[in-house]
Amino acid sequence: MSAIDILAQVLRIAVPYLFAAAGGVLSERAGIVALTLEGYLIAGGFGAAVATYYTNQPWVGLLAAPLLGAAIAGIHALATIRYKADQVVSGVAINLLMAGAGAFFLRLMFDSSANSPRIPALGDGLGSGLAATFGQPLVWMAFLALPATWWLLERTAFGLRTRAVGEHPQAATSLGVSVSKIRVTAVLLSGAVTALGGAYLAFDQHKFTDGMSAGRGFIALAAVIFGRWEAPRALVACLLFAAAETLQIRLQGSPLLPSQFVEMIPYVLTIVALAGFVGKSAPPAALGKAEG
Amino acid sequence: MSDATAPAIALSGIAKAFGPVQAIRNASLTVARGEIHALMGENGAGKSTLMRVLAGMFRPDGGTAHVEGADVTGWDTADAIAAGVGMVHQHFMLVPTLTVAENVMLGREMTRGVALDRAGAEAAVRALCEKTGLVVDPARKVADLSVGEAQRVEILKVLFRGARILILDEPTAVLSPPEVQELWRVLRTLRANGGTVVLITHKLDEVIDISDTITVMRAGETVGRMATAGTTPADIARAMVGRDVALAQRVDTGVTVAPRATPRLEVRDLCVAGAERAQAVDHLTFSVQAGEIFGIAGVEGNGQTELIEALAGLRRADAGSILLDGQPITACTVSERIDRGLAHVPEDRHLRGLVLDYAIADNLILGRQHQYAGTWNLDFARVGANAAKQVAAYDIRPADAQLPARALSGGNQQKIVIARELGGAQFPAVILAAQPTRGVDVGAIEFIHARLRAARDAGSAVVLVSADLTEVIALSTRVAVMYGGKIVTIVPGDAATPLELGPWMTGAMRAGAA
Amino acid sequence: MSGRAMRWDETLLPPLMALAIAAVVGDLLILAFGASPGHVFGLLFEGTWGNAYGFGQTLYKTTTLVCTGLAVAIPLRAGLFNIGAESQIAAGGFAAALAGLALPAGVPWPIAAVLCLLAAAIGGGLVAAVPGALRAKFGASEVIVTIMLNFIVLAFLNWVVAAKLHVPESLHTPEIATGGVPRFADFISIFHGSAANVTLFVALALAAKMWWYLFRTKQGYELRAVGLQPEAAENGGVSLGRTWFQAMLIGGAIAGAGGINYVLGYKHYYEEGFATGSGYIGIAVALVGRNHPVGIVFAALLFATLSQGGLAVNAVVPKQLMDVLQAVVILAVAVCVPEVRRVLRAAGGRAA
């Protein structure tokens, strides 16, 4: 295994994290807790697989994934913004819903609760070199997701409003900015972007599998927190966590270091960061609070 | 629709209730174009609520609102801003993590293509600064600004939106005297340029200083309108309190308490950090004797809240010591202080004073719950007996101790707090009473004052903090004025007058310079 | 106490509305599958309450869910969200198994069972102490810390069992020598084959104890005050940090105790994933039970019925239907609680 192969593996593992972390930053900076990332990933994988299967056109799947992701995010937005439901509770419910619904609809549509039929890949996904890796459109899109999020938040009017709404919603309201509109938009975008990560998993494995997201949404959430809710830092965190996972895969069965301990790295780092052991870490001030 | 001859603002018969609380009723206000209009009244008179209706933050339950002749009843903030009405709130509405320019353009962003035009916004803010004399660096983060600078940003925000009608809610509460003069200069410039200003305040000297016309509110109603020229402070004060100020006079019961060797409360060199200032309480020293009400007057935000919280054990003292009956309590917990005879009537009863969803009976033991704990459980027979006694003694209505505190009126809620803190078998050694009558009806005010006097006559030492100067003067044995975290003067209560205390409160006079 | 301080309509309406919504969604999904809702709900009832085995399995699942429901509810009463019951119950089960393995076979089972129960409570409590302490000391969000700890603790247990303790070709530890508790089938033969065991009474006793704790003791009075209005509680001499820590510790210990249902009552060993999902369903149980121990017992029975019923209907509709319905119930309660409160208070405000 060459260093290039290892690098390519890190990058591929990072793809769903990057999409989901971008979604996490968008949602949380607007003040809405993003425990739902796991659910959006499932929505994306399911949407991509089903749409691709029925049309045999991977690009239709690529469009369907963010649409389904945004639809599921719409439920979260409706519950937490319109009805002021607790954001943590709604997040837990959305994840349970998607975990159950994925398997339910697999059986409804394909009479198998384990996985969908085989679907064609998107782009040139063969080989393992760097060029082949970046030949997949979803890979380079993933690496643009967090920079684009940064640009959106820091350099556009929508981003300015999003940051204001997540920090001090009353201030935004007093200037005639609709907190609900901004938050709904941010949450829908969050669902759409994150779902692309799920789509990547489906195309990569040529099918949708029950339990495919495997906690990746939570690793992405960890990356958002470890990255102090800033897109560039979150990008570094995603790569760090992906590198740890690569290491874990390569250590499997090795007597040197149990792979389970490497698996813990992202979670331990996040707790350490949250406790304030590595610099000051302040979440958006209005995170998790219903408006008014 | 705008009528060039119509007044800038014409509010008529406005009413607004929040749940069971009628905040304003039948409030009317007419403001001519190009004048500085003072809206006066005591705390809780409904000034801010009325102006929030005008600014589109609240929809009125009744009445009509016209701006420059157009009917604007029930509009929202976006409409108000578009029509040139802007409000600067008492509690700043600034996003601390954004820069000055970002805060100013929020909601009305300057863009180049799809991207924000930061340079353009900063230039626009700079130009506005030069035009108005409100100096602040547009590229700085708001979190790094001083209070005075933050207020300038608030005014810039409103002017950036082209406001012709500017509403300022207690703008001087947090300003130093030179900053206040600076603000007056800015407001006069605005007036000279045809702008209209409504100034919400409860300070007489400011009104005389700056306003053209005055409207006075009392208990949710507008009760008087007068031209500033030819009006005396006594006239205004009378309209504000609804009776001759002389009536709110001192009641000396003639009881004298035997002197003790040690003061009941002694504060030595106390330093306390606040949310906004590192030295919110700045090397404070004073003592309160048995049988004394020690009144602390001052503009809010000069360290009174931090002082009371430090005395109650809710906020850490950075330096200095606190002694109760000669014993140091600086390191004691809240609970230990309560056990040693410290009572606290907190300034915000909805936040600190009561658990609103707890029954009256449960609220009546808060802070003393360990005194009701048996071996296995709370002794509910005693909790109930205590509740029955206090509900009767303090005339808490409705007289049903199982109702949640949330269901009661403000006056009755405050009676629960007073009953709990003052209604024990004997009066506490030290009573901290912060804004004890804020938002409370007149009947309850009299009752609460009577209880504080009774505690004083029984030998308690009372520390009274109130934004209501007449209350402080009427109750206190001695009146201290806090300014900038320090006590700048102490005068005997029977010799204190608003006119004498005013300059100390505003920092116009300082210790040593007198 | 505080009889009328609690509004029955405000308390009971949201879960009832949520169940109605879930019933409608369930009907629609069953129809989408081409089955008859009546038939499916009939099967569900038959498979849970209609025969002794199914009922026994339902009671077994109820036992676990009462514990995880309480584990969520107690911290929530203090204003903290414990998403960590998932790993706390695993740690509890593991600790019980360790204790059972360490005890000599000669120790009488009641003594051994009590020791194992203590070990389980300590195991779960230790896991929950971490987020409690980090919240109290550093203000770290207990939501995130408990989620992260779920992954950490489960990975750790996975390693210990895989590397040190497992029976070859399996993912579980050896059987404990003593401490196994009787199953219902040991007394009443028609329960034969079902996992229901006397741990159910432990869970019910814990619920009763928690009712007493919350509503009858000084600590419970303080804990609820902290959850309702921390500033007022602080002014009443209550230490917020200590209360948060205690609430998490109690919650974790109860979740941990729930681990014995499997380890002492059912399989007599610790197995990876023995309680997967029960921590998350515990959140649903706490919400639907409105954080009240009595409500939690009924809510646990309901969710256990849905879970066991999923197996009974699996031949006609996928058992995941029940997962979907559980999620719908959680979401609906979360939406209905603030909405019902708003509507009732608006109506009350007009009347006043």
Characterization of the model:
With 292 residues, chain A is mainly α. Helix content of chain A is 72%, strand content 0%. Chain A has a single domain, classed as ABC transporter involved in vitamin B12 uptake, BtuC. Chain A is built from 13 helices and no strands. The termini of chain A are far apart. Chain B is α/β, with parallel strands linked by helices and 514 residues long. Chain B has two domains: 9-246, Rossmann fold; 265-505, P-loop containing nucleotide triphosphate hydrolases (Rossmann fold, 3-Layer(aba) Sandwich). In chain B, strand 21 and strand 22 (486-492) form a beta hairpin. In chain B, helix 14 (410-422) runs parallel beside helix 15. Chain B is globular, with a radius of gyration of 24 Å. The termini of chain B are far apart. The model of chain B is unreliable at 244-248 (pLDDT under 50). With 352 residues, chain C is an all-alpha fold. Chain C has helices at 8-32, 37-48, 52-77, 85-102, 109-138, 142-165, 199-216, 218-228, 230-235, 240-258, 260-263, 278-288, 293-313, 320-351. In chain C, helix 3 (52-77) crosses helix 13 (293-313) and helix 5 (109-138) packs across helix 6. The interface between B and C is medium-sized, with 38 and 27 residues.
Element order of chain C: H for helix, E for strand: HHHHHHHHHHHHHH
Please, how many domains of chain A? 1
* Strand elements of chain A, count: 0
Top-tier CATH class of chain A: Mainly Alpha
- Structural class category of chain C: mainly alpha
- β-strand percent of chain C reads under 5%
Please state the CA-atom Rg of chain C, rounded to the nearest Å.
21 Å
Largest sheet of chain C: none
Strand fraction of chain A? under 5%
Helix and strand sequence of chain A: HHHHHHHHHHHHH
- The shape of chain A is globular
Poorly predicted runs of chain A are none
The CATH class of chain C is identified as: Mainly Alpha
CATH architecture of chain A: Orthogonal Bundle
Name some characteristics of this structure.
heterotrimer; B: 514 residues; alpha/beta; Rossmann fold; 2 domains; six-stranded mixed sheet; 22 strands; 32% helix; C: 352 residues; mainly alpha; ABC transporter involved in vitamin B12 uptake, BtuC; 0% strand; disordered N terminus
The gist of it:
With about 290 residues, chain A is mostly helical. Chain A has 13 helices and no strands. Chain A has helices at about 5-30, 35-55, 60-80, 85-110, 130-135, 135-155, 155-165, 170-175, 180-205, 215-225, 230-250, 260-265, 265-275.
